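ok so heres the complex, two chains, lmk if somethin looks off
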Amino acid sequence: AQKVTQAQTEISVVEKEDVTLDCVYETRDTTYYLFWYKQPPSGELVFLIRRNSFDEQNEISGRYSWNFQKSTSSFNFTITASQVVDSAVYFCALSDSDSNYQLIWGAGTKLIIKP
Amino acid sequence: GAVVSQHPSWVICKSGTSVKIECRSLDFQATTMFWYRQFPKQSLMLMATSNEGSKATYEQGVEKDKFLINHASLTLSTLTVTSAHPEDSSFYICSARGQPTNQPQHFGDGTRLSIL
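and the predicted structre for the whole thing:
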């Protein structure tokens, strides 16, 4: 069965520090997709990235970067030079053909950036 | 592109009333729509999946008579919470997906429901 584990329940750092949010997934499928979403206090889900299982290239988007490692079934997310506006709950999710591409969600990591 | 509009954003109503939440895909055809419920400080919990023109498929433990889902067109799905009670208070989020099935889901902004 599919599973997404975000072991960090809450992380608190001081502004301008770098922070990495961990995500470990389980699936038997060879074709799958991994996602990261941001949920600020206002509640809406903000899509950050979608990565398919055949693309292991790391991605950088501004202060955000993602490290996809199939060998360890991890898809970690790093924020460089964090800002107060980055404070939110971040969800990692997985979809695969076994789940008919429904999203399997991690528990979320609450990120607190202190000024 | 791929915008999903969810209304209302928040609603407060008395116990015993029914509440309807709408989810619209504005610029694409949503063959599948999903309804999620989120309790405070928890992850999203899938309630049901609906395909246009078909009956919704409910997840285990979700009362289909309490949470009525209609997906009558390729751009609109509705969730009606019937005879709502305080324990139905929650944050409800819809998402929509086009074809093929491996397309990503696009999310509405959610509805905060408070039952007094």
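quick notes: Chain B touches chain A through 20 residues (CB under 8 Å). thats all i got rn
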